[in-house]
């Protein structure tokens, strides 16, 4: 049975008779030989029986564990269907429930107590040729706050898209969690918010006269939801009603916190991680200061010592106070970037550049107001400045076109306790407290929401934007869907179809009363990081500048067709994302050699052919990986058996 456990997960019933005989597993599988196409069909049938995204996520992660080759075949067969499951918005819910959804470890878990031993831990990882790492400390997972050890779902999901969208072989990818503790003592909010998030992810209850719409999540009162309440659930992708299902409230095993049960899936509404017996991370407060910095230093050094200076390290979901500091500290020393700052900036600017083809003017003709002044807002603002300077205006003139609103109101000169990053965008202006007032006074052409405040773009704000502008730009970029500043439907209906909309999580198409149908653009970072990774790895870039992300933004915008724009799409269809990633990689390879930041020489004459060759080689490596893994695992199994025999004195 050991041979069965080692070999079968790698290909399942796709093993030929010859392979089964060679591996000693003949008779341990049913006699039928199933091609991968048939196996994909089998998984799809099982997938379609799952009625909510969390169940679908668990199914796909289980498949990834038992048959990685089939997992990626399935993912690439319909990336538009599966991306919202393996990543946003479902991955946020999965991270909240990581202790319940946990099946087997995937990735490397490094704790604050492992200082001095990180190099040894990297040596424990079975793959030697790592090209890309996604690392998080779990402190700011999407818009959900500090999830500590539950944050591992983010690196795993990101790297799945490295492979599915960018073609980076999975054996060259390493997800890492740096666990320094958690300060979460109930940060996942009360039952109303959590249940709202879950119902929003599964499908908004509509059509039942007894159940209010979930669209106004910030003011949602779930007092109507009682034990055995029957709710009609709608599919978020088709808006077709599913059969009525029972949603019940019960007590969480950890105490009086309310939870939502659907079948076997328990969805906690108010988890206190430090007191949760199911929590898989360190159960103490976050370690900060010098000890934390020393851990990051040791990790960066250990990675480059083992995998080389060209190993790409992507920082993900670090808190604001650490994200900028870490990026600025390492960006010129290692091959690294922060996706929340630079990736989000790139995809947002790509959407704005595409929108210029609708507004028919220059970027510097626009005035931007940001709801939020954290990593994402500042990253987008700096890339917008770079793009405006490229048009020919000065840095100072570009800054004047950007306004920011944080939790204390409009950022203005003279306001106390502004950090260095915010000070750059502080203007001479009286203090204004609310976003509604700011929009009324500043009269922006574009508003961009990145503060994870659900419903922040109120009806008044959207209508005001439509009154100031013929084609207002309204980007509700916060993740997950439950944190979006407004819905696509609100934007299109309140602006009478004139709004130019993009969101961070997917929204369904919207049909107005006059028959016009719009397909909202999803500004997903997945348009950016797989292509950036593929390009950086292909030519051995050692330092990633902001120009890389502006080049990426321009490449994405260039791939938006006129037909896409008419439909309301500011991004290429997700179904084309593999081609988008490839074209980004080709442009970055060309940029890297022109700027002298590539390290692989001689320089290829035909960059597109070079990129195609890299992609083909990656595909061949993926095809060969299962056979290599079989040989490695069998070799290790023999060694383990030999050690056991010696230990038992045989």
UniProtKB/TrEMBL annotation:
Pfam families xref list: malic, Malic_M
Gene Ontology biological-process entries: malate metabolic process
Cofactor(s) needed: Mg(2+); Mn(2+)
SMART domains named in the record: malic, Malic_M
Molecular function GO terms recorded: malate dehydrogenase (decarboxylating) (NADP+) activity; metal ion binding; NAD binding
Residues involved in (S)-malate binding: 140, 479, 524
Ranges where the Malic enzyme N-terminal domain occurs: 64-331
Cofactor: binding details: Divalent metal cations. Prefers magnesium or manganese.
Active-site feature positions: 87 (proton donor), 158 (proton acceptor)
Alphabetized UniProt keyword annotations: Metal-binding, Oxidoreductase
Residues holding a divalent metal cation: 316-317, 340
Residues in the signal sequence: none
Malic enzyme NAD-binding domain boundaries: 341-593
GO CC term (a single one): mitochondrion
Protein family: Belongs to the malic enzymes family.
Name of the molecule in the record: Malic enzyme
């Amino acid at each position: 049975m050991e041979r069965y456990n080692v070999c079968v997960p790698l290909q399942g019933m796709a093993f030929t008779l010859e392979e089964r005989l060679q591996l000693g597993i003949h008779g341990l599988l049913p006699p039928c030989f199933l091609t991968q196409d048939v196996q994909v069909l089998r998984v799809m049938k099982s997938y379609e029986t799952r009625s909510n995204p969390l169940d679908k996520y668990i199914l796909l992660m289980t498949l990834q564990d038992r048959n990685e080759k089939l997992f990626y075949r399935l993912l690439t067969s319909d990336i538009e269907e599966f991306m919202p499951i393996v990543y946003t918005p479902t991955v946020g819910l999965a991270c909240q429930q990581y202790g319940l959804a946990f099946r087997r470890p995937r990735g490397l878990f490094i704790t604050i107590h492992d200082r001095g031993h990180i190099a040894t831990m990297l040596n424990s990882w079975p793959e030697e040729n790592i090209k890309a790492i996604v690392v998080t400390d779990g402190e700011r997972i999407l818009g959900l706050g500090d999830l500590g050890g539950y944050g591992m779902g983010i690196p795993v999901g990101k790297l799945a898209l490295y492979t599915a969208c960018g073609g980076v072989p999975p054996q060259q990818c390493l997800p890492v969690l740096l666990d320094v503790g958690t300060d979460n003592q109930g940060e996942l909010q009360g039952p109303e918010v959590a249940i709202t998030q879950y119902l929003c992810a599964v499908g908004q209850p509509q059509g039942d006269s007894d159940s209010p719409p979930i669209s106004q999540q910030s003011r949602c009162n779930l007092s109507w939801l009682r034990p055995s309440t029957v709710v009609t659930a709608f599919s978020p992708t088709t808006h077709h009603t599913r059969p009525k299902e029972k949603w019940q409230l019960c007590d969480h095993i950890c105490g009086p916190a309310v939870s939502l049960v659907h079948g076997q899936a328990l969805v906690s509404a108010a988890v206190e991680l430090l007191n949760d017996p199911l929590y898989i991370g360190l159960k103490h407060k976050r370690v900060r200061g010098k000890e934390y910095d020393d851990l990051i230093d040791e990790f960066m050094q250990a990675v480059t010592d083992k995998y080389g200076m060209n190993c790409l390290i992507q920082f993900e979901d670090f808190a604001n106070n650490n994200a900028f500091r870490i990026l600025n500290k390492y960006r010129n020393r290692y091959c690294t970037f922060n996706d929340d700052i630079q990736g989000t900036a790139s995809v947002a600017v790509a959407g704005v550049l595409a929108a210029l083809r609708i507004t028919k003017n220059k970027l510097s003709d626009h005035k931007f107001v940001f709801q939020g002044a954290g990593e994402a807002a500042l990253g987008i603002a700096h890339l917008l400045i770079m793009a405006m300077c490229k048009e020919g205006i000065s840095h100072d003139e570009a800054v004047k076109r950007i306004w920011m609103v944080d939790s204390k109101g409009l950022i203005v000169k003279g306001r106390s306790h502004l950090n260095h990053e915010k000070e750059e965008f502080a203007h001479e202006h009286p203090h204004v407290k609310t976003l509604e007032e700011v929009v009324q006074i500043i009269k922006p052409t574009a508003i961009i929401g990145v503060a994870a405040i659900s419903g922040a773009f109120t009806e008044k704000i959207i209508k005001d934007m439509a009154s100031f502008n013929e084609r207002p730009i309204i980007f509700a970029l916060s993740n997950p869907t439950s944190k979006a500043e407004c819905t696509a439907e609100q934007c299109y209906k309140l602006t009478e179809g004139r709004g130019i909309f993009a969101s961070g999580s997917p929204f369904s198409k919207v049909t107005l009363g006059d028959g016009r149908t719009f397909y909202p653009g999803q500004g997903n970072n997945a348009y950016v990081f797989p292509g950036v990774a593929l390009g950086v790895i292909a030519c051995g870039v050692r330092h990633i500048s902001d120009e890389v992300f502006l080049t990426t933004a321009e490449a994405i915008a260039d791939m938006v067709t006129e037909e896409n724009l008419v439909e309301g799409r500011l991004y290429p269809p997700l179904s084309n994302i593999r081609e988008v990633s490839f074209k980004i990689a080709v442009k970055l390879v060309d940029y890297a050699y022109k700027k002298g930041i590539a390290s692989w020489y001689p320089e290829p004459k035909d960059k597109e052919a070079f990129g195609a060759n890299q992609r083909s080689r990656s595909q061949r490596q993926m095809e060969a990986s299962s056979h290599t893994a079989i040989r490695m695992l069998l070799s290790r199994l023999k060694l383990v058996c030999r050690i056991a025999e010696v230990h038992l004195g045989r």
